[in-house]
Design a protein that fits this description.
Blueprint lengths: L10 E6 L7 H12 L3 E4 L6 H11 L3 E6 L4 H14 L6 E6 L3 H9 L4 E3 L5 H17 L1
Helix pairs in contact: 2-3
Length: about 140
């Protein structure tokens, strides 16, 4: 594993989970993260939580950005967090986004998701949150 240092660019995994085949937003995020100087890994469609954790481990990512539009966020987002922890990965920022009702945000955060972004969130807001969150993790 590479040493996660402050000088290394942020490496982020953009994850499309479950049976959600809508990837336009995830691809927009990939480009925005790349343009912000991040190294981007894209999971491709239909990834399982276990596959996301394996990619995160293999690629030594700093952050996982999950995108889900099919309503399975309450199940799949916490499963990703558990799969990461099962592999001993505790130093990765995990965020989620998509069409997620506000009423579900607190439960997802309690399950270990750092932040949930809804429709219409600006790309700069997402990038700034990830940059700040990874910076804080690197200081721990």
């Amino acid at each position: 594993m590479k040493q996660k240092t402050a000088s290394r660019s942020i490496k982020i995994l953009v994850a499309k989970l479950g049976l959600d085949g809508h990837d336009r937003g995830a691809l927009v995020l990939c480009r925005a993260f790349r343009d912000a100087g991040m190294e981007v890994i894209y999971s491709g469609l239909f990834a399982t939580p276990e596959r996301i954790a394996q990619i995160a481990q293999d690629e030594d990512v700093d952050a996982v950005a999950m995108s889900l539009l099919n309503g399975a966020h309450g199940t799949l987002f916490p499963r990703v967090v558990k799969a990461l922890k099962k592999k001993g990965i505790n130093d990765v920022l995990v965020v989620g986004g998509g069409v997620i009702p506000d009423i579900d945000h607190d439960a997802l955060i309690k399950a270990g998701v750092d932040h949930v972004f809804g429709p219409g969130t600006s790309l700069s807001t997402i990038i700034n949150h990830i940059t700040l969150g990874v910076s804080k993790l690197r200081k721990i």
